[in-house]
């Protein structure tokens, strides 16, 4: 794994400052990356300490022991409901089967949306996509690139975020592995491809359509609309 979210993105994740989709993609990366998971744990502790210390400064007249006891009493008086009723919820891992019959296990953040994954559609050649119907304006898809296949060269009107779930792929800038977290925008132009004996399952989020820059795929750029997978 070579590519990770920035420290600022991880801090925003800890503080709940990201939108739902960005938080979702970060959570998927954390499932695969022990390094970022450790950093998030450190940032969460730091954020908690900052909030706790700020509350003590803002209410210096409150005795620390008294404040702790009041907080503890409030928590223990809460009636657990819904997901909170489970002390240790089971981590259910759903699966997805690709058009060529391969079955992959989905990480927990994606498993909870398994019923919202549509049927696969052919994206051209040996590339397939399945949309995930989430409550967001961005387009969220599973993308499966079979072995020895290529996505037509393209750039982006907005941002494309990709998290690799299984396998890997390459483009003009290098090779990417499971867990890698890639963000591409209008300053990037690439043509992802897999090699013989290699395939790739990834999650992609597009805020705007792709713009194809080579070959017959450019027909999808008519009227400036571009194309979603």
From TrEMBL:
Which Pfam family would be a valid example here?
Cupin_7
Alphabetical list of InterPro entries matching this protein: Anti-sigma_ChrR (IPR012807), Anti_sigma_zinc_sf (IPR041916), ChrR-like_cupin_dom (IPR025979), RmlC-like_jellyroll (IPR014710), RmlC_Cupin_sf (IPR011051)
Instruction: Please give the superkingdom of this protein's source.
Output: Bacteria
**Family annotation (SUPFAM superfamilies):** RmlC-like cupins
Domain ChrR-like cupin, chain residue ranges per copy: 135-206
The name of this protein is Transcriptional regulator
């Amino acid at each position: 794994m070579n590519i990770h979210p920035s420290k600022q993105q991880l801090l925003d994740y800890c503080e709940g400052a990201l939108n739902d989709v960005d938080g979702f993609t970060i959570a998927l990366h954390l499932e695969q990356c022990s390094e970022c998971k450790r950093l998030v744990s450190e940032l969460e502790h730091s954020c908690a300490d900052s909030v706790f210390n700020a509350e003590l400064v803002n209410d210096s007249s409150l005795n620390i022991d008294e404040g702790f006891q009041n907080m503890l009493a409030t928590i223990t008086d809460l009636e657990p409901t819904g997901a909170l009723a489970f002390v240790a919820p089971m981590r259910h891992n759903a699966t997805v089967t690709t058009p060529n019959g391969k079955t992959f296990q989905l990480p927990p953040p994606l498993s909870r949306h398994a019923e919202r994954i549509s049927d696969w559609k052919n994206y051209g050649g040996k590339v397939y996509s399945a949309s995930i119907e989430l409550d967001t304006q961005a387009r969220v898809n599973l993308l499966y690139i079979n072995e020895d296949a290529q996505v037509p060269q393209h750039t982006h009107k907005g941002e494309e975020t990709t998290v690799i779930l299984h396998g890997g792929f390459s483009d003009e800038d290098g090779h990417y592995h499971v867990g890698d977290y890639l963000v591409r925008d209008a300053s990037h132009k690439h043509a992802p491809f897999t090699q013989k004996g290699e395939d790739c399952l990834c999650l992609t989020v597009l805020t705007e359509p792709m713009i194809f820059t080579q070959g017959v795929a450019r027909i999808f750029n008519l009227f400036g609309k571009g194309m979603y997978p």
